[in-house]
Amino acid sequence: MSVWLNGDWRESAGAIDAADRGFLLGDGAFETIYVSHGLCAFWPEHAARLRCGLATLRIPAPPALDAVPAIIAELSRREGLAERSAAARVTVSRGSGPRGLFPPQTASPTMLVSLSACEAPRGPARLVASERRRFSAAVASRFKAIGGYIDNMLALDAARRAGADDAILLNERGAVACATSANIFVISADGALVTPRIEDGAMPGVVRGLVLAAAPAVGLVAAEKEISLDAVAGGFVFLTNSLIGLRAARLKDAPPPSKGEESFRALRSCYQRRLDESLTRKGPA
């Protein structure tokens, strides 16, 4: 498997310095981007969140971030994925440094770009509520931090062992925050579209923002608000992220919802149009 690392094409095995703080301490940020036929979807939005995360960590943004679409196009060709859907990951760490937590005052960031084939899962996702909690004030809930996914990983593992597809993470107050790698939305019986607030621990997801913006066009009033697990049980639920788009979901063993599917389909169609537009953008963005 080929990767792009700090301006060079490498094989993935042995590519990272053993002293890299991203590997040792999770000191960095990343983005996962949907790629179709070598084209990046919504790269400007992903780049903005990645730059925000790096600024939070006080890691300089590598100039090569501007070249990511071209890097991914070439990586698609090299990996035989130029005619397929794929998942790109752009990872930026602080780079190598001495042992210990204290970050070196001059950073030489490591930037790694990799690409893998992917296919969207089929059918509604079956969900269970995790016993693990997502701390709503954590810095790592605002961007994709390299070291910020341990609880998510363990929650997903427990959900799969319980026969579900994903887990719902609640925050320290017991309110819904997100799924393990997706934002969560609920269409209530009265036709309102709600999703957890950022301050409840929700990731400011790229697709989340697009869905909120598209809601008025399909006749939905969207709101970011605190959501209980009971609200999830009583409404039409769907998950969003860059690789799945919009995916219907419901609590494991719960019956299908009686309302909301028509609105969900309309939102999904709106998102597909925005996705198609993003994939046909010209220029470096």
From TrEMBL:
Pathway named in the protein's UniProt entry: Amino-acid biosynthesis; L-isoleucine biosynthesis; L-isoleucine from 2-oxobutanoate: step 4/4; Amino-acid biosynthesis; L-leucine biosynthesis; L-leucine from 3-methyl-2-oxobutanoate: step 4/4; Amino-acid biosynthesis; L-valine biosynthesis; L-valine from pyruvate: step 4/4
Q: Which SUPFAM superfamilies match?
A: D-aminoacid aminotransferase-like PLP-dependent enzymes
Q: What InterPro entries does the entry give? A: Aminotrans_IV, Aminotransferase-like, BCAT-like_C, BCAT-like_N, Class-IV_PLP-Dep_Aminotrnsfr
A Gene Ontology biological process in which this protein takes part is: branched-chain amino acid biosynthetic process
- Residue intervals passing through the bilayer: none
Report the superkingdom from the record: Bacteria
| UniProt enzyme class | transferase
Task: Provide a Gene Ontology MF annotation, just one.
Answer: branched-chain-amino-acid transaminase activity
Q: Which key words are in the record? A: Amino-acid biosynthesis, Aminotransferase, Branched-chain amino acid biosynthesis, Transferase
Keyword Iron-sulfur part of the UniProt annotation: no
* Protein function: Acts on leucine, isoleucine and valine.
In Swiss-Prot or TrEMBL terms, this protein is called Probable branched-chain-amino-acid aminotransferase
Mind giving the lineage of the organism this protein is from? Bacteria, Pseudomonadati, Pseudomonadota, Alphaproteobacteria, Parvularculales
